[in-house]
């Protein structure tokens, strides 16, 4: 199996306010959001990052997407370092997260062209991709409607398409089905499976267990910034279902019942 | 009522617990204090030296011996004919030409009052030192108020122009007084309208981050933003400028006879346009840097206000600076305003123009570089 992502001892801390320090009864003024995280993802798999809110999933993904820099550690995407070779990394990955917004003034058609140019996609390639992706998600029906006038589901579809204008081999999806109705969510998850069959590698961050069970090949469980389990979904769910397994892991790590 | 208090408490903690908010609200006052104090110091030092030490050149005819002591600050120039003297004044080589009536003292002693003895003082209202000399002489005449005589009283049937400034110089002086400041004020308002929205607005809405994860270089993003914003600001500036230019003849009706616009050559307009472009680049870049610091459009507005005041004050400073050393042209924006003034008064030198425009471009480039570094900084770009 070919390694496409290698994460080595990734660490990220944030400053704590004085009041928060008191609350947490600590004298250190930093909070460790991601603590020595290491894992590897292989080509053609969907790797799930599972964890409760605030576990450090999004921080990890933001580091991988070069939006923020790790305090220490490194990660390599097809050999390119997220610390020293940011520009190369940016060209290799697609990143879908609710934090990245699209200008509501523009239409899906315009935005697709704009981001294609930023990613250096050739015009003929761009037009073919646009036709294909817009058709698949039904965006062709509202391609010239300003984003501000679209529904949440439509916007999410546009964001998804924009995040992969450059046909990246490595795609990060942060809670891609959040806030979507079951129909739209199904379109999105079906597409993830389709991307995998096309040989893409996907990092899927979520707190929805069923999604992991249904889609992921392997899964890393993050609690309090640390990786507490890393295995295939099959192995993790050998004895009990993922949800129960997660509660066990949580109890072991945090030391209290859920 | 209880709810009102709850809202007040919430607003207070929103405000007083946010250091940036407090700073951005209080900073303008502090800056105004510093800038105005500075300006006052400059102005008073300028005025001060002027009143006490400066002397003026004058050609005086028929001055009674007893009065010469009162005019100790006049350096008398001898042996000029009336025409020579007037020409020298118009050329800026001489400040005043004063003609006392023959038998001035005798007429006064005799109480001549129909008409009173009239002193003629020729000056050039477009030359700063001539105007000051004229003011000085008038002050001296006022001290002599016990004596009955008149100064520059127009005589019926005689059409004498005491102000030797030609139309061109008068118009130039007038324009140089307010045009640079006005243009800067217009440009600044154009820049304020676009920079916060395009930088802080994109940050606030989360659309900046979407661009930051693409392989685009940070300096490309910074330069692209600044160039396009400069065009908007320039358009807004040009539109206001045209408004001023077209209304000028009406505004100035009666103040100046000639067609002012025609006094200036294509080269002059070209230089002014170049200066405007360079100034817009500086102002937009500076506002963009401030907007990049801000978390929201609102905060950007607050952060930009002191800068705005500073720029407009530079305009005032450029107006009150009496004699300008060439080094001042190398100060971005200030040099630009001085150069514009100099163009309007037909006294621009190539060196001054080049210094003014180059200093602006250098600062603009530095600010673009600063902005690209800010785009690279997660603490600035993703600080919530």
| Spatial extent as radius of gyration of chain B | 28 Å
Oligomer: heterodimer
DSSP summary: helix tally of chain A: 10
How many separate domains make up the residues of chain B? 2
How can the largest sheet of chain A be summarized?
Answer: 6 strands, mixed
* Poorly predicted tracts of residues of chain A: none
Task: Please compute the radius of gyration of chain A using only Cα atoms.
Answer: 19 Å
- The structure class of chain B reads mainly alpha
Q: Any low-confidence stretches of chain B, pLDDT <50, length ≥5? A: none
N-to-C span of chain A: 37 Å
Q: What is the domain tally of chain A?
A: 1
Task: Name the average pLDDT of chain B.
Answer: 82
What fraction of the residues of chain B are assigned to beta strands by DSSP?
5-15%
CATH topology label of chain A: Rossmann fold
Tell me the number of strands of chain B.
5
Widest sheet: strand ordering of chain B? 2-1-3-4-5
Shape of chain A: globular
- What is the fourth-level CATH superfamily of chain A? P-loop containing nucleotide triphosphate hydrolases
Sheet-strand content of chain A, in percent, reads 25-35%
Count of DSSP E strands of chain A? 10
Task: Report on the architecture of this protein.
- The complex is a heterodimer of chains A (258) and B (384).
- With 258 residues, chain A is of the alpha/beta class.
- Chain A has one domain: Rossmann fold (3-Layer(aba) Sandwich).
- In chain A, strand 4 (72-77) and strand 5 form a beta hairpin.
- Chain A has helices spanning 18-23, 57-64, 86-92, 108-118, 123-137, 152-163, 182-197, 209-215, 233-236, 242-254; strands at 3-15, 30-42, 46-50, 72-77, 80-81, 93-96, 170-174, 201-206, 218-223, 226-232.
- Chain B is mainly α and 384 residues long.
- Chain B has two domains: 12-47 and 168-381, no CATH class; 55-165, D-Maltodextrin-Binding Protein, domain 2 (3-Layer(aba) Sandwich), CATH 3.40.190.
- Chain B has helices at residues 2-16, 19-53, 82-90, 104-109, 128-143, 167-205, 207-212, 218-251, 266-293, 297-320, 334-344, 350-376, 378-381; strands at residues 56-61, 74-76, 96-99, 118-122, 150-151.
- Chain B has a five-stranded mixed β-sheet, sandwiched between helices.
- In chain B, helix 6 packs parallel to helix 9, helix 6 runs antiparallel to helix 11 and helix 9 (266-293) runs antiparallel to helix 10 (297-320).
- The A-B interface holds A 65-69, 87-88, 90-91, 93, 95, 99-104, 115, 118-120, 162 and B 202, 205-207, 209-217, 378, 382.
């Amino acid at each position: 199996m070919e390694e496409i992502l290698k994460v080595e001892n990734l660490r990220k801390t944030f400053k704590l306010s004085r009041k928060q320090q008191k609350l947490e009864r600590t004298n250190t003024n930093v909070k460790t959001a991601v603590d020595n995280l290491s894992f590897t993802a292989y080509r053609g798999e969907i790797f799930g990052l599972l964890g409760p809110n605030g576990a450090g999933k999004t921080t990890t993904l933001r580091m991988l997407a070069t939006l923020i820099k790790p305090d220490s550690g490194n990660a390599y995407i097809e050999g390119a370092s997220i610390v020293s070779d940011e520009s190369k990394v940016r060209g290799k990955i697609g990143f879908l997260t609710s934090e990245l917004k699209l200008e509501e003034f523009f239409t899906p058609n315009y935005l697709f062209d704009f981001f294609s140019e930023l990613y250096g996609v050739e015009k003929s390639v761009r037009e073919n991709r646009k036709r294909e992706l817009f058709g698949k998600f039904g965006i062709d029906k509202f391609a010239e409607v300003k984003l501000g006038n679209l529904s949440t589901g439509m916007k999410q579809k546009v964001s998804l398409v924009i995040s992969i204008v450059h046909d990246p081999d490595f795609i990060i999806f942060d809670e891609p089905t959040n806030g979507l109705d079951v129909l739209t969510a199904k379109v999105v998850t079906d597409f993830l499976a389709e991307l995998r069959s096309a040989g893409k590698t996907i990092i899927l961050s979520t707190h929805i267990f069923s999604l992991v069970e249904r889609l992921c090949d392997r899964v890393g469980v993050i609690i309090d910034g640390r990786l507490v389990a890393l295995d295939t979904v099959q192995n993790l769910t050998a004895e009990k279902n993922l949800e129960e397994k997660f509660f066990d892991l949580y109890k072991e790590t945090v030391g209290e019942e859920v | 009522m209880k709810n009102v208090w709850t809202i007040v408490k919430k607003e207070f903690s929103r405000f007083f617990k946010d250091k940036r908010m407090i700073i951005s609200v209080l900073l303008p006052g502090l800056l105004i204090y510093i800038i105005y104090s500075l300006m006052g110091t400059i102005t008073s030092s300028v005025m001060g030296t002027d009143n006490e030490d400066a002397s003026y050149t004058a050609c005086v005819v028929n001055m009674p011996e007893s009065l010469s002591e009162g005019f100790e600050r006049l350096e008398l120039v001898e042996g000029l004919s009336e025409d020579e003297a007037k020409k020298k004044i118009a050329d800026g080589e001489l400040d005043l030409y004063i003609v006392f009536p023959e038998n001035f003292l005798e007429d006064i002693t005799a109480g001549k009052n129909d008409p009173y003895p009239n002193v003629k003082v020729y000056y050039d209202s477009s030359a700063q030192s001539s105007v000051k000399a004229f003011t000085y002489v008038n002050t001296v005449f006022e001290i002599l108020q016990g004596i009955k005589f008149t100064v520059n009283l127009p005589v019926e049937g005689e059409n004498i122009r005491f102000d030797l400034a030609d139309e061109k110089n008068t118009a130039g002086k007038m324009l140089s007084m307010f045009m640079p400041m006005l243009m800067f004020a217009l440009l600044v308002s154009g820049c304020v309208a676009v920079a916060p929205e395009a930088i802080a607005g994109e940050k606030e809405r989360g659309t900046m981050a979407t661009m930051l994860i693409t392989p685009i270089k940070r300096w490309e993003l910074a330069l692209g933003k600044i160039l396009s914003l400069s065009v908007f600001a320039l358009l807004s500036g040009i539109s206001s400028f045209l408004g001023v230019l077209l209304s000028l003849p009406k505004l100035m009706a009666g103040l100046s006879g000639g067609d002012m616009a025609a006094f200036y050559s294509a080269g002059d307009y070209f230089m002014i346009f170049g200066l405007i472009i360079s100034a817009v680049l500086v102002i937009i870049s500076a506002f963009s840097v401030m907007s990049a610091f801000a978390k929201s459009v609102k905060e950007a507005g607050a952060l930009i206000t002191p800068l705005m005041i500073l720029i407009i004050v530079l305009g005032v400073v450029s107006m009150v600076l009496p004699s300008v050393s060439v080094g001042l042209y190398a100060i971005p924006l200030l040099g630009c305003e001085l150069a514009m003034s100099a163009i309007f008064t037909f006294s621009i030198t190539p060196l001054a123009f080049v210094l003014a425009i180059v200093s602006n471009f250098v600062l603009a480039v530095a600010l673009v570089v600063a902005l690209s570094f800010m785009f690279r900084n997660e603490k600035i770009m993703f600080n919530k």
